[in-house]
Amino acid sequence: MKFIPKLLLAAATVTMIISCDNDDETITSVNAPSNYSFERNGQTSVSYSGQTDRILMAEEVLDGLKDPSTSLNTLQAQFDHTQGQNNFSDPALNSSTKSVRSKVAASSDYFSSNSVDQSSIRADFDGWISSQVNELYDNGAWVSTTASLV
């Protein structure tokens, strides 16, 4: 009986020595490329600066949607932005050729041959912007709705 604990201790010791072999792999570092290229049919499909402009534009549109003093014309102009118009607080965005609207329902896979659906979805966005101003801001619902959230 005294032999079994010693045998188990010896077996455990041998198992630990064998399993603790140094088999760590060398970790190599990953170098990110300075440029990314996403191509479809041999043409780039991503413009970093264009995406950044649209994100910043969308943030100002969202800020306007949360501010009942923002007019419907201002919100629509920000959403539809035309280069050179002073729709944003950042002059760089005002000089941009980009707009938020241009990327709504803009997937070439789904809408390149289906302008009816694309127009319908864009009209939905126009309706939502209009409803924000006409139904929430103008009739006082904005004040009572936001007050109930506090």
Order of helices and strands: HEEHHHHHH
Query: What general outline do the C-alpha atoms trace?
Result: elongated
**Residue share in helix:** 55-70%
Summarize the biggest pleated sheet.
2 strands, antiparallel
Terminal CA distance: 74 Å
Protein name: DUF4856 domain-containing protein
Pfam families: DUF4856
Question: Could you walk me through the main structural features you see in this protein, from its secondary elements to its overall organization?
Answer:
- With 150 residues, the chain is an all-alpha fold.
- It has a domain at 46-149.
- Helices cover 56% and strands 3% of the residues.
- The protein has seven helices and two strands, in the order H-E-E-H-H-H-H-H-H.
- The protein has helices at residues 3-19, 48-65, 72-80, 91-94, 108-111, 115-137, 141-149, and strands at 39-40, 43-44.
- It has a two-stranded antiparallel ribbon.
- Strand 1 (39-40) and strand 2 (43-44) form a beta hairpin.
- It is elongated.
- The chain starts with a helix and ends with a helix.
- The model has no long low-confidence stretch (mean pLDDT 82).
Task: Based on the model shown, name its key terms.
single chain; 150 residues; mainly alpha; two-stranded antiparallel sheet; 7 helices; 56% helix; 3% strand; elongated
Write the layout of secondary structure elements.
Elements: H1 3-19, E1 39-40, E2 43-44, H2 48-65, H3 72-80, H4 91-94, H5 108-111, H6 115-137, H7 141-149
Antiparallel strand pairs: 1-2
Helix pairs in contact: 2-3
Protein name: DUF4856 domain-containing protein
